[in-house]
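Complex record, two chains
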Amino acid sequence: MWQVILSTYQKNRIGIMRAVPWSFMVSRVVTGVTQIVFPYFIYHYFMQGNLQSDFGKYAAGADYMTYIVLGSALNVLAVSTLMNVGRALISELREGTLETLLLSPASRSAYFLGCLSEQTMRALLEFGTVLAVGALLGADLGFLLSLRAAAVIMLAILGFFCMGITLSSIMLYTRNTYLTQNTLFVTMSLVCGITYPVQYLPGWVQKIAQIFPLTPAVELFRNVVIGHQSLMENYFSILQVVILSGIYLAVGSVWYVKMEPRLMESIFG
Amino acid sequence: MSSVVRDEPGNQEEGKIIARHLVKDYILKEKKGLFARGQKKVIHAVKDLSLEIPQGKITGVLGINGAGKTTTIRMLASVIAPTSGSLTMNGVDAVKNHLWVKERINVISGGERNLYWRLTAKENLRYFGSLYGLSGASLNEKIADLLETVDLEEAADIPVERYSKGMKQRLQIARGLINDPEYLFMDEPTLGLDIVIAKEIRRLVQELAREKKKGILLTTHYIREAEELCDYIYVLDKGKIIAQGTREELKELFMYKPQLLIQVKPSDDQEYLALLKEEGEKTADEQVLNLLMEHQIQVEGLSVQEPELEEVLMKIISQPDRRSQ
């Protein structure tokens, strides 16, 4: 198990470093910076720093920059994890290497964990960039360096990973990556409370928002970092991430187990 | 390593893969129009196929495109499940114990897929080895050994994207041997390779069967290759075995004859044709040559052309009385 995780990590890392050695790092950093600079301009130069009075109530008393920096950072982590875990198998299919993986007795879970570990290293770079630029632009991130915050980040990654397993099955089933991932990512950034509180959205959209682990994870992250709340005070959000993770993992795994024979037939048959 | 429960295997079942009455149907959904409901269509890819792959031997499967060769290989390798029939490996039910089977087999396909092009040969083999639970010094030793076997030691640290077609195929063979499989399924391993490389790969395939005692199933498009390598050959058509036998038996069945191509001066061409017509189009090569010499027609070139496999197989398919089954 550990061996497959490690070798998948190494294989992906070598592949990505040889494909895009330095431009890759630059693109990650630039993406992180733009995630923050855009809302910063809108807030300061378009909205003139004015917010509705109920924003403070929904955002646990945070200022807008801190609110948006934390949301964007977690969104970056979600998108990276979903994208890399979700399209891991379909990329193997397109590169013509999936059959060697399916032919082997190696654990599929270990393969996915290998992909997760490699991509998390890259995603954390982008995550760190968003937070660093945010801090420079005035976000108050003092409580970020705490065990509580680290635990929330780990929990969020778990949620995104489990959702990525389901996404992987959807991509393999539809043989489509662009429509699937782009639709999902745009929807998530609109409804999960990244740049504005979900309470501003219509009731039925708020309900849809609850099916994404990003919604409770980002709420939890802000409560811990901005509100200095304990994890116990946020047990409902934690439970929601855990339950959603369990559901996505179960759905994705069962779907994949059912789909693998058909997948093999479509490749080999 | 996965464990397995044997269903009292008989001695005859040891050391071979045995397929009995294998059937594989595919269900295709056909949609006529964007909003129309799909109609199911059953494709019978393999029908009632029985064969054996003993260790230490090379078993050939021949057939024209669409004969069911690839489906057969994938079923025997437990990659896809048969619709019905039984499949055993060393006496163990291969359908129920597919993980156990996967540890003991490997598949080598012709072409340039199944390798990570950005990785070097060593890195590729290290990754594939880890998928079979290999690691550390024993894996490194195995990699060095395999690279020597396929003569890629000097290119071991070069990314595969810079390899020639022949080098990629040799690396494919090393990949297929990384788990030291008991059975190897080779799907057109010399497809598109030049003569020298193809010869080298054929030598390697022979060595694997004769010296390393691997059971090899080989599909090929080259009739000479099948003749040279295979101990026993099955001929497939439309998912059914239409002929089978040893090389010698099938040679008789194929009854193919190489064609002698004679090139004469363009100016003599008409004269030559008229001559042949006059003599009743004699077909024996020596008679034709004697005739040309007798009439002092200068020969500019001579070559022997082997018939295409498709051509020979089509001949068997179109003559049911020649079939051995």
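Note: The interface with chain B takes residues 3-4, 6-8, 10-11, 14-15, 18-19, 95-97, 99-106, 261, 264-265, 268-269 of chain A (CB under 8 Å).
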